[in-house]
Design goal:
alpha/beta; 30% strand; 5'-nucleotidase,  domain 2; six-stranded mixed sheet; 30 strands; 2 domains; Purple Acid Phosphatase, chain A, domain 2
């Protein structure tokens, strides 16, 4: 017997734009605000949680139709599902628009049996491996034939509408992508309970399918239905209910040893309100300045920048965002360029601009290890603690330990290795700091320019920040000892 690991899988299906709460027997029931609150609560209570959506997020709400699904994607982005599959109503605005909406989604959308008929190319990623708590779970997405009802004029699009063909496709994926590292296989379907039963009968035991999480028929269940020893579940419709598996997995026997499933109601007794989601919903319900009130991203939590002359959570996040996928090694973000002491977890466009109002270009320079050490000594001089000098936030990989009393750098590392005097390091600074290099950093720019001609690598720092925020949700950052000041 191996180690027993626990996993919670939450799942919704057929939400159909059911974004706002309703009064049911005097209780506020459903709505994305409480659904999000429930998911957040479980994620905090349990270590290993996956949230999956089994299709049909769209249609049923003016909020959805007014924005042709863009609002829905935005709202579901804030639910932060780990995976979703395509439902038949996802194609209501057209296949081309669906592919556009998929690009707007900050969560993976999988489907194994929609393809371009002329060359048999899959339209979506057919599966995804989700790794959590040392476990690897393979999700495969399957769709109903009714996709063709909304896309019948788009003849280049096809689907394996036959259950036998769908089963064959599951086998192909399992044979090719289920490995010794795969702990569980979950089918995330939108074919209805009857076809889920038929599909389960056709699944070969060696394919290793453990669960079928379905949708489409809006079936309310009180317990899983077992077919071919595979539990099939579905969680009704709307946002007033959510399905929940609590599993125990034996890593030695490579199987689920305990499975409990239920549907939880979403109401004021079971789910707290998520004020972040409520705020986002309000932004769609009221006519506001869309340019400045639009949500750019949602961080994992509120982050702080309490003082300029120390490493901060927000400082690390911003420095990392600018250094990410760059051509330089270290971003030196001016502490004073970050204006708010705290921000998040919802980041609106207005917040972003107010927090980094000094938008300018980004310059890359090459310094030697010896020059970088001189720069650090200058930055950390006594005047720094009086708040009268420029101070910096450093991107990941930097480790500097400085003792105030002796004015000495006791640790000076990059990516875990001691920085050598002859080592060449590419750094980046905003224009303001580049133009004041000698004064702010204590080393002549001309001396540094002899290593490599400085060059402008981006015309707008805020462009980089906005793109990073827009393509990354759930961002978090911690003070981790990049810069340690010892008294």
């Amino acid at each position: 017997m191996g180690e027993i690991r626990k996993l919670t899988i939450l799942h919704s299906n057929d939400m159909h734009g059911d974004f706002l709460p309703k009064d049911v027997d005097g209780k506020e029931t459903g709505g994305l605000t409480r659904l999000s609150g429930y998911v957040d609560k479980v994620r905090k209570e349990k270590d290993n949680v996956i949230y999956a959506i089994a299709g049909d997020m769209f249609r049923g709400s003016i909020i959805d139709s007014e924005y042709m699904g863009l609002s829905t994607i935005d709202l579901v982005n804030n639910l932060m599902p780990d995976v979703a599959t395509v439902g038949n109503h996802e194609v209501d605005y057209g296949i081309g628009h669906l592919l556009f909406l998929e690009k707007c989604a900050k969560f993976p959308i999988i489907n194994a049996n929609m393809f371009v008929t002329m060359n048999n190319t899959r339209m979506f990623q057919p599966y995804i491996n989700i790794e959590v708590g040392g476990m690897r779970i393979l999700f495969i997405g399957i769709l109903t034939e009714e996709v063709l009802a909304s896309a019948k004029s788009e003849k280049i699009i096809g689907t394996f509408i036959d259950v036998e063909e769908a089963a064959k496709e599951v086998g192909i994926i399992c044979d090719n992508y289920r490995t010794v590292n795969t702990d569980m296989v979950v089918l995330l379907t939108h074919i209805g309970i009857d076809q889920d039963r038929e599909l389960a009968k056709l699944l070969h035991p060696d394919w290793g399918v453990d669960l079928i999480i379905g949708g489409h028929t809006h079936t309310f269940m009180t317990e899983p239905e077992y077919v071919n020893e595979i539990p099939i579940v579905q969680a009704g419709t709307g946002t007033g209910i959510i399905g929940r598996f609590d599993l125990q997995y034996d890593t030695g026997e490579k199987r689920i040893v305990d499975l409990r499933w239920r549907c939880d109601p979403i109401n004021e007794d079971t789910a707290p309100k998520d004020p972040i989601m409520e705020e986002l919903l309000d932004s769609y319900r009221t006519e506001t300045d869309r340019k400045y009130k639009r949500v750019v991203t949602r961080w994992a939590r509120k982050l702080t920048h309490p003082a300029r002359e120390q490493e901060t959570e927000m400082g690390n996040l911003y420095a990392d965002a600018i250094q990410w996928e760059s051509s330089f090694d270290i971003m030196m973000m001016g502490s004073g360029a970050i204006r708010k002491k705290e921000m998040g977890p919802v980041i609106e466009y207005q917040d972003m601009l107010e927090n980094t109002p000094f938008d300018d270009a980004l310059w890359m320079l090459e310094v030697t290890g010896a020059q970088f050490r001189r720069m650090m000594q200058h930055i950390l001089r006594d005047e720094a603690w009086e708040g009268h000098t420029e101070f910096y936030q450093f991107s990941k990989g930097v480790r500097v330990k400085y003792r105030k009393s002796t004015h000495t750098i006791e640790e000076f590392k990059f990516r875990g290795e001691d920085i050598r005097d002859d080592q060449l390091i590419k750094i980046a600074l905003q224009t303001y700091h580049y133009e004041n290099f000698d004064e702010f950093l204590g080393v002549p720019l001309a001396e540094v320019a002899a290593n490599m001609k400085p060059r402008c690598v981006a015309t707008s720092v805020n462009n980089i920040i906005e793109e990073y925020f827009a393509t990354n949700s759930g961002l978090d950052s911690h003070v981790e000892g990049r810069l340690e000041i010892v008294e």
